[in-house]
Amino acid sequence: MISDRHDPEGSIARAAKACSNWGRWGEDDVLGTLNFLDGAKRREAAALVRRGTSFSLSQRFDMDGPQKGWRRRTNPVHTMLDTGTDAALGLQGFPHGIGGADDVITMPLQCSTQWDGLGHIFDHGKAWNGRPAGQVVTSEGDLVTGIEHMAPHVAGRGVLLDVGRRIGDGGELPDGFAITEEHLRATADAQGVAVGRGDLVLVRTGQLSRVRREGWGDYAGGPAPGLSFTTASWLHGTEIAALATDTWGFEVRPNEFEHAFQPLHQVAIPHIGLLIGEMWDLDALGQDCADDGVYEFWLTAAPLPITGAVGSPVNPIAVK
Asked: Which residues contact 21 (CB under 8 A, 6 or more apart)?
């Protein structure tokens, strides 16, 4: 429970101090909690593949996506550069009848299923590992912790905590529901799965199921179920490598403090160094886990190695 809803700044400062990983992996670290996911963990995770059934955990990238223009976040614009019509009309200038098609996409890197990089959020002008934010991310991009550094590392044991199915009504948590450490632990216990060092944890709330049925509405930036600010100590203490949800903002919205905006982000990214995923599609995987009772799997979810980016689209693949 939040002890003082009127003091977000004090609560953030206390949680940041208690959960700080600054210096844990040296002053030059650019991976944060991905350091917990090593080769030994990946070898163990590879043994989880039993059936060879794979699930894409990505939403689509198209103009029918959830974005509404907040902070200039728009849905992807897909444009063809060369088409079959061009080829058929002989407009491409290629020899012996060969033709082709090319296309381009324009989009914010965080408009659909994505990772938040370590340069995405700051606390009082400090970026991950205590670096000055102004020296880390400039108009040229993230000069230190760009998402490209993480591209080889995000593959290992995935664990689904289907909190929506465990305690929600019809498999869905209501908007504004704060998921506590107790909810996470109870869900893991009920599913017979442990969460620990180096895991890639997925938390399904069921909100994406609801907006698919009812329309996007305020999915992008509006009220949502999500992690309580009080889970900061759990995120730190479990030593997980990453956590992703099926919601726009990872944490509960409205946030639990008065006059606050994404306070858990302010602790989790710059202080814990946690890799955070948002807007993941966990429905088909969740149903399969419920059907066979197995909530762990091989998961690969590499960000695009976009030099200097503070986030990246991703098409996560879970294999059971």
From this structure: 32, 33, 236, 271, 272, 273
How far is it, in rounded angstroms, from Cα 224 to Cα 220? 9
Is pLDDT above 90 for 3?
Answer: no
Structure tokens at 28: 């030059």
Q: Residue 51 has which token pair?
A: 């059936």
- Domains (range + CATH), the chain: 8-71+108-319 (3.50.30.50), 77-105 (no CATH)
Summarised one tens digit per residue, pLDDT across range 191-222 is: 999 999 999 999 999 999 999 999 999 999 99
The C-alpha atoms of residue 28 and residue 174 are separated, in whole angstroms, by 41
pLDDT of residue 2: 75
CA atoms of 160 and 128, how far apart (whole Å): 27
- 28 contact partners, CB below 8 Å, separation of at least 6: none
Q: Both tokens of residue 300? A: 């690969």
Per-residue pLDDT reduced to its tens digit, 176-193: 999 999 999 999 999 999
Q: Would strands 155-161 and 200-203 be described as parallel, antiparallel, or unpaired?
A: parallel
Strand partners, 277: 115, 244
